[in-house]
Amino acid sequence: MLGGFSKADNANDAQVEAAKDVAVAKLGVPANTVSVVGVEKQVVAGTNYKLKLKVDGGSGAKFYEAKVWAKLPAHGGAMELTSLDEISAAQAGVSGGAADECPGAPEVDDAAAYAVQQISSQSNSLFPYTLKKVLSAKVQKCGEGGVTHQLKLQLSHGSMPDSIYEVEVANPGGSFQLKSSQQAKAE
């Protein structure tokens, strides 16, 4: 794409490794726990690198998108981190079975809010459901750019005791669809 980011084939070249090191320094994790799962480049007054990073840790993998600007050699050639955001496994391009997602990630919060709104609209109660907490979140890549979120939600409902719902919310490309929702049985 003219002027935009384009996929880079050389994910292991020295410049990409240097850009990764800049992001790793900001993350504050050991370099050997971070792997590059995707790279895009944009030529500007220097080069912008958009890295999809996987960080393996004790509580499972987390994914990040880092944007690093490599200045032109005439301007010192230094690298500067311009953004670092946590993303879902699907946004990182990791496919396969359902992967854990960070319950606080914006995409998870949006899917949970949509599910709660749909559950409330399907209820005949005067009191809407409210989200208390996302207990767990998994994402599965499906189709061209689409994802399905499998969420376990703790909901409150008026003066009733909190209830746990297991929901599946699809996002095939910009709009959510509630695929299923059921109240979990008490443990």
From TrEMBL:
The UniProt keyword set, sorted, is:
Protease inhibitor, Thiol protease inhibitor
Can you tell which superkingdom this protein's organism belongs to? Eukaryota
Renumbered to this chain, the signal peptide range is none
- Is the keyword Glycoprotein in the record? no
Residue ranges annotated for the Cystatin domain, each copy included: 1-84
Q: What SUPFAM superfamilies does the entry give?
A: Cystatin/monellin
| InterPro entries named in the record | Cystatin_dom, Cystatin_sf, Prot_inh_cystat_CS
A GO molecular-function annotation: cysteine-type endopeptidase inhibitor activity
Mind telling me which Gene3D superfamilies this protein's record contains?
Answer: 3.10.450.10
Q: Per its record, how is this protein called by name? A: Cystatin domain-containing protein
* Species of the source: Chlorella vulgaris (Green alga)
